[in-house]
Specification:
- This protein has 425 residues and is α/β, with parallel strands linked by helices.
- It contains 15 helices and 13 strands.
- The strands form 4 sheets. A 4-stranded parallel β-sheet has the order 3-2-4-5, with helices on both faces. Strands 10-11-13-12 form a 4-stranded antiparallel β-sheet.
- Helix 4 links the parallel strand 2 and strand 3.
- The protein is globular and about 75 Å long.
Length: 425
């Protein structure tokens, strides 16, 4: 006799909470203690001189990161949101300029654009990879477009080859947000390293972390200098007086502390191991979920690797007819953790649909009397369809997921799918 769903009074497949992911160990403990013992928690000085680029641990971490990612320059920052703001400021964007990005991202991606009084323009996404669609990007380019900001969502690279070709064709900067995909590859190169400026998050639930932090990467010497200035009170350091050198040199305190840098260095040593572990989990899920009607496992593009920050599923057929809300309720009752009902549709947030940001007069959109900007429903139909019902995610970075626990998750999915009819309506 078939065991009833837990939602209908049966016994849950997973009867205990799964192990949370714990990334810190003795190496990080000793690294943090060594900084405390040194008595120097930060060595930055917001003025020209030896302290402008930070202390011993920050510089050592930046050198290690540059070598790992194969770039000329790596700069640590106190958060990846800070990194995104610095990216946009470094390309000398003007108020009212446009930057094209994806709606499927954390809000900070778009807010970094808005921060500089530039205007985010949202391109739709690929329904299989969930990354920004290059064809939609090119259709949105106008004379005021300054850059494309790609996001490598969920753990795999956007189509950087196509996006770079578009950027070069139209004389645009290409900016990267690889918060969720450090260590993944596109061809022979690491994701996040082919944009004019790219970077990675060190937030507490990313593959590697130091609580809060980020890494900016670039091969461009001038852009690296701009990033360093924006990170550390640029207005107090810039000595030139020509407009080109002063543009956007409104500096901040985006500086990474020595403890964070020491921990981040230890975490970077673990990245390959973390990637292999996530790929092991995904492979086991792929095999176990194969054949469940109306459920498609993550698509991995040719010449790419996936590091599975999120294990993204799509619903079709019978599963779509039952409805995502009912499926999630049933899976949760069976004990499946980390379920994601859709993802952020940034273009639907009130700050964009109402076009109210700085003050109440519609700034920066009010700077552009020559055109209007559409946000909200029907702006990005693929992203909206996935968000509203066709996407179901598992957040792999929040749990340990040894092999036996992955099998429990598979068993729970199989149990729910064997009784889809009981969930209809």
């Amino acid at each position: 006799m078939t065991q009833p769903l837990a939602l209908h009074g049966g016994t849950p497949v997973i009867g205990r909470p799964l192990q949370p992911f714990k990334s810190m160990g003795s190496a990080e403990e000793e690294a943090a203690a060594s900084v405390v013992r040194s008595g120097v928690l930060s060595a930055y000085i917001g003025a020209p001189g030896d302290g402008f680029m930070g202390g011993t641990y920050v510089r050592a971490f930046e050198k290690k990161a540059a070598e790992y990612f194969g770039v000329k320059h790596a700069l640590g920052v106190n958060s990846w949101t800070s990194g995104l703001i610095a990216e946009v400021g470094a390309i000398r964007v003007e108020p009212g300029d446009e930057i094209i990005t994806t709606p499927w991202t954390m809000s900070a991606t778009a807010m970094a654009i808005l921060h500089w009084n530039a205007i985010p323009v949202f391109a739709d996404i690929d329904p299989r990879t969930f990354n920004i669609d290059p064809a939609c990007v090119e259709a949105l380019i106008t004379p005021r477009t300054k850059a494309i900001m790609l996001v490598d969502i969920f753990g795999q690279s956007a189509d950087v080859d196509a996006l770079k070709a578009i950027a070069d064709k139209h004389g645009l900067k290409l900016l990267g947000d690889t918060a969720q995909a450090p260590g993944s590859k596109r061809g022979d190169g690491l994701t996040g390293t082919r944009a004019d400026i790219g970077g990675f998050s060190l937030n507490y639930h990313k593959h590697i972390h130091c609580g809060e932090g980020g890494i900016l990467v670039t091969d461009d010497d001038k852009l690296a200098e701009k990033l360093a200035l924006l990170r550390n009170h640029a207005e107090s350091v810039v000595q030139q007086d020509d407009p080109a050198s002063l543009a956007n040199m409104i500096g901040y305190n985006f500086r990474m502390g020595e403890i964070e840098a020491a921990i981040a260095s230890c975490q970077l040593d673990k990245l390959e191991e973390r990637i292999a572990d996530r790929q092991r989990v995904a492979a086991q899920l792929n095999a176990g979920l194969l054949g469940l009607g109306g459920l498609s496992t993550p698509f991995v593009a040719d010449y790419s690797t996936h590091v599975y920050y999120v294990y993204g599923l799509t619903l079709d057929g019978a599963a779509r007819e039952v409805g995502r809300a009912a499926l999630i309720e049933a899976l949760k009752a069976e004990g499946v953790p980390g379920l994601m009902p859709g993802y952020v549709n940034v273009h639907r947030l009130p700050i964009f649909t109402k076009q109210i940001a700085y003050g109440t007069g519609g700034h920066p959109w009010s700077l552009r009397e020559d055109r209007s900007f559409a946000y909200g429903t029907s702006t990005c139909p693929v992203a909206e369809r996935l968000h509203d019902g066709d996407f179901l995610g598992l957040n792999l970075c929040m749990f340990q997921f040894p092999e036996d626990e992955v099998q429990l998750v598979i068993n729970a999915f199989q149990k729910v799918w064997s009784q889809l009819d009981s969930l209809r309506g």
